[in-house]
Design goal:
Two copies of one chain form a homodimer.
Chain A (H helix, E strand, L loop, with lengths): L7 H24 L6 H8 L5 H5 L3 H28 L4 H10 L9 H12 L1 H33 L6 H21 L6 H15 L9
Chain A binds a DNA duplex through helix 1 and helix 3.
DNA sequence: ACATTTGATGTACAAACGTATACTTATCGT
DNA sequence: ACGATAAGTATACGTTTGTACATCAAATGT
């Protein structure tokens, strides 16, 4: 019997695995990564102590799985949005829609932001992230840079290297994420999108209108 | 004898205090906040085990002091730059110079960025930060918003609410900080400043030239 | 129907944690 | 010069940590 099939046993096993992952995420969001201990996770997941070592060789292996779930959700959403627009839309529309995905649910949720920034903050997790997602992150960045180049050629903006500008836009998204995390009651996702759109309009005035 | 005087004893005491703070900062930068244990800190600072409890009531009190040192350095630099330019410069120059401070040493150093993001990532430290620096951070934000309003009136840009745009610029700075932290060998401070300047030029084309 | 295998449980344990406390050292005021 | 006192040291202690391991329960294949 190949793994991942829908036997009653393996189904419950995967359910428990999911419970552990989700318990870890909510725990990080509410109490921080220092609260992620084996005891607290299994307590929140409603399973027994030893179960965590049945599913994951170490605690860190579980955390990497958490990291995977966030990165893959973001990567897949970005890719799909890009591919859906790239054929039958203008580069301007594709760029806007693709980046707006990162500023909307289910990507931009305070709970998930909290987890992202825990990984950013730790050198070990940063290294793991870099090693695991180097290629796909680079791919996304170059995709954005390609769209910027298209807009530059159409509008003759002379923004310098497109890759630097792509990094700046990515940095802006990251910064807006952080703002939602650190000041959740002074800003919100709508404001984040408004701000992003405004900057995009400033950079590419011939492609975006200030009113919309 | 009032505290903080230059007696031989209190001088050495303050020196040890500084050693502990700096050891903590470098420890966070190199191994993450989870490596900040009493043993590791005193080992790195080259002092004895119990000294940390002589200087700080708890470990968290020491961390707050670390937080203070970073925030005050940044706040003072921003204030001074603003005040130095505000009287005898254009709003455009004041805005550029004031924000560039945050993208240059000694503010923008990888070591310090690592510490900033550790505080951002933890809910408890976020709360402490919010409570301690709410006013001065708001002051800085409104200062930026004021400059943006001045530029808007001069240039008739129609960027919407200045406070939202100010938050966006702050978010951009934060994002560029993060980029330096997560991809130190793919980008650098010069690129960060170039990117920021480019976006500022895009937003206020009548005030900034694309070439400089 | 039943032996087997797999998922789940609970306990055990060494290591590391933060801090309180008893003890030393050396500077300070007189 | 010398007790007083502040700074620094070293040890000890109760918790909590992650993981290993022996045990148990039940769905599975024949």
């Amino acid at each position: 019997m190949p793994p991942g099939t829908e036997s009653l046993r393996s189904l419950r096993k995967q359910d428990n695995r999911r419970k552990l992952i989700e318990a870890t995420i909510s725990l990080i969001a509410e109490e921080g990564i220092s609260a992620v201990t084996v005891s607290r996770v299994v307590e929140r997941a409603g399973v027994s102590r030893g179960l965590i070592n049945l599913h994951f060789e170490t605690k860190e292996a579980m955390m990497i799985e958490v990291m995977d779930s966030l990165n893959h959700e973001w990567r897949d959403s970005s890719r799909e949005t890009y591919q859906a627009h790239d054929s039958n839309s203008t580069p301007a529309q594709t760029l806007l829609e693709t980046m707006m995905i990162s500023l909307s649910p289910p990507i931009m949720e305070p709970t998930k932001m909290a987890v992202w920034y825990c990984f950013y903050a730790d050198p070990w997790y940063r290294k793991v992230y870099e090693e695991r997602y180097f290629e796909t992150d680079q791919e996304t960045l170059e995709m954005i840079a390609g769209l910027i180049e298209a807009l530059d050629q159409e509008g003759g903006y002379r923004h310098g290297e497109a890759l630097i500008m792509a990094r700046a836009l990515r940095a802006l998204v990251n910064g807006l994420w952080l703002e939602l995390l650190t000041e959740p009651d002074k800003t919100n996702m709508d404001e984040a999108r408004t701000a992003f759109k405004a900057i995009l309009t400033g950079l590419f005035p011939k492609h975006y209108s200030a009113t919309a």
